[in-house]
Every structure is written in structure tokens, then in C-alpha cells.
Amino acid sequence: MTLITGIVIFTLATFLGVELIGRVPPTLHTPLMSGANAVSGITVVGALVVAGAGYGWISNVLGFLAIVFAMLNVAGGYVVTGRMLEMFRKKEEPAAPTTNVSSGTERSR
To answer: ∠ CA(86), CA(67), CA(58), 5° rounding?
Structure first.
């Protein structure tokens, strides 16, 4: 694949991504994005391959940076998913205060 082909594919993917995300309703945006961030684990595998391919020091540095950023993205995806799931959990209602109702048999002083 030539450099021009790669740039064209990257540009088309960028425009397609912007259009798709722009048309997602706000109620679905968080679940979809957190799922997409979790899929970023595949990027970690690709970054490991690049870092360990032995193409030179620049490949090692870029591969390492890709691993770091992809892992941050994966961790962020799980944090967002956890927060989102917390929003939909039912909150426990506080227990009603108990009152001691006397049966009227107590003596008054």
C-alpha cells in the first residue's frame, strides 16, 4: 500500500466516523463510545507487534507510545462503562425511621 492510499483511507475513515458519531442520539452515545474504547484492546496487540518487530529504535518508541495510549483508552472505556452502569442502578431507599408507639399502658410521672 502506498502512502497516498493510506492517507486517502485515513481521510475517508475520519469523515465516516464523524458522520456516524454525529447521528447517534445522546442517550446511546455513552454506551457506544465506552464499548468502542474497550475494543481498543485490539490496538494494544497491534502496538505490541510493532514494538517488537525490530524495525529500529523509532519503531520501538512509537510502538511503546501506542501501547501506553491504547491502554489508557481501554482503562478509560471501562471507567466510563462503570459510571454509566451506576446511573441505571436502582438507588436503595433509606429506611423509614422507626417510632416507638406505646400501647397506652405506661404510667405517666
So the answer is: 160
Q: Which one has a higher pLDDT value, 89 or 103?
A: 89
What lies within 8 Å, CB to CB, of 5 at 6+ separation is: none
Confidence of residue 38 (pLDDT cuts 50, 70, 90): low
40 and 77 Cβ atoms separated by less than 8 Å: yes
Please give the Cα distance from 25 to 76 (Å, whole number). 21
CA distance 38 to 7: 26
User: CA 46, CA 65: separation in Å to the nearest integer?
Assistant: 12
Q: Does residue 74 carry a pLDDT above 60?
A: yes
- Rounded Cα distance, 105 and 8, in Å: 89
- Helix or strand (DSSP H, E) at 64: helix 57-88
